[in-house]
Amino acid sequence: MSGAAGLAATDVVAGYGGAPVLDGVSVSAAPATITTVLGANGAGKTTLLRAIGGALRPRSGRIMLDDLDLTRRPPEDVARAGVAHVPEGQGVITELTVEENLRLGALLQPRPRRAAALADAYQRFAVLADRRRRLAGTLSGGERQILVIARALMSAPRVLLLDEPSLGLAPRIVTQVMELIRQLRDEAGLTVLLVEQNARSALSIADQGVVLNLGRVVAKADAAELAADEALRRHYLGF
Amino acid sequence: MQEFVEFTLGGISSGMIYAAIGLSLVLIWRGTRVLNYAQGGMAMFTAYVALTVINHTGNYWLGFVVALAAGLVLGAFLERTVIRPAASKPPLNLVIVTVGLLIFIEGLAGIIYGGSFRSFPPAFSINGLSIGSFDLGITRNDIFTAAAVLAAALLLAAMFRLTPVGLRMRATAFSPAISRLLGVRVGRMLTLGWALAGLIGALAGMLVTPQTFLYPNSMDQIFVLGFTAAVIGGLDSPVGSVIGGLLLGVVLSYASGYLGSQLVQIFGLAALVLVLMVRPSGLFSTAAARRV
């Protein structure tokens, strides 16, 4: 799987029973760009990624990867189509070693490419190479975050869904993670949908921004434009 | 001295059978968090299938292979048809389902094959081996039993550690949700776990039935001891269940040899209760791994 791909979610309604968390949300990400999804807690950001990634079945709406319809496909099929979903928080399998986590990520690639993918990951993330035989459960929060991103990249995805990669990380590491995401767009042509609480960091690397509030899109614009809109920042972004 | 060697070797041989049953329970527990009470019944049924093949063809090894294949297919079939639909329900439902399955399989065996005790051929000679005049108290068949279970356990361990499918199965056991995000077809891994458990259970059935005779309830006692072996090992550790089976086999062999053979079943249950009281997470499991 290679080549940049675009992602489009249209009129997505989704929730967990009761009132929908997402009430007709449309978000798209152009090939090889970073689109950040911002908003307060409870705005529906994580629900949106789960609906796109297949972890949650949307009640209505459509999810397209280029011409491929991913609506209501289970997460394993979405992953096999080239959309890697990095969930929020504890996404590593703590009982497996660092290397096993990475190898698991590479299993979607044809067998001959797996070893090269592993070597690439170790070259890019030296901290993982040093800890390859350790159980993932022994890593620090920042190391785990790097591991889940590295593991998502092992499948050579076309689209990366990132949920709060900066959560709980020290500011210095947040900067590193953001820099990494930008590199992936520039060097690998990866299309990124980035959900963040940390709006300032996210907008600093994003091409486009979408602001959610209570399950609806309230703003959609170039990242620079959003960052410059003081009223929007005060109301929804908190900086 | 001679008695001690006899009891020890005999204990290792029967312990390996408990280990095999324990191993089959662990395979299912790790994947689906279900204690499969029907495991012994499934093994009994495959033994009947083997006996039918052996009686018709006169070829023990053909029956042996057919039994293992039948166990594999039976495990996969039951996971797909009976277990999967109940998997999203509360855990107690699955317990009831596997108990019901046991009753059903034993009843079905009674209807098809009748309730009479049938003798079952061993793979190898059951004449006692000796070194010079020193009687070892074990037979060629006992050695085959221990070797077969050991080989099965090592093959399983190698599969889990060294192959992509093994990695997928372990990932599924630890975290099905994350595994799905990584493209693992979790449903297939669960089916495969049940299939392998069916195969190992069938192996245990082939190995133990020459001693117990074959009848619809013939695996019930062995199941309790295999369950104990798995619990000693922590229920989620394949290595633990093998060591648990060996420990149990040797202890029960001493109890039977020095104190009286009628005590085996009581000692087995006592060992189970003791382990559950003193170290409920088993000897080889991390406490956090148990979520009951």
Secondary structure tally: strands of chain A: 10
String of helices and strands of chain B: HHHHEEHHHHHHH
What shape does the CA trace of chain A take?
globular
In helices, the fraction of residues of chain A equals 25-40%
Question: Structural class, judged by helices and strands of chain B?
Answer: mainly alpha
pLDDT averaged residue by residue of chain A? 91
Largest sheet of chain A: 6 strands, mixed
Strand content of chain A: 15-25%
Distance between the termini of chain A: 38 Å
Rg over alpha carbons of chain B: 19 Å
What does this structure look like?
With 239 residues, chain A is of the alpha/beta class. Chain A has 10 helices and 10 strands. In chain A, the strands form 2 sheets. A 6-stranded mixed sheet of chain A has the order 6-7-8-3-9-10, with helices on both faces. A 4-stranded antiparallel sheet of chain A has the order 2-1-4-5. Chain A is globular, with a radius of gyration of 17 Å. Chain B starts with a helix and ends in a 14-residue tail after the last helix. Chain B contains 11 helices and 2 strands. The A-B interface holds A 53, 55, 74-76, 79-80, 84-85, 87, 91-96, 100, 103-105, 107-108, 151, 155 and B 164, 167-168, 170-171, 174-175, 177-186, 289.
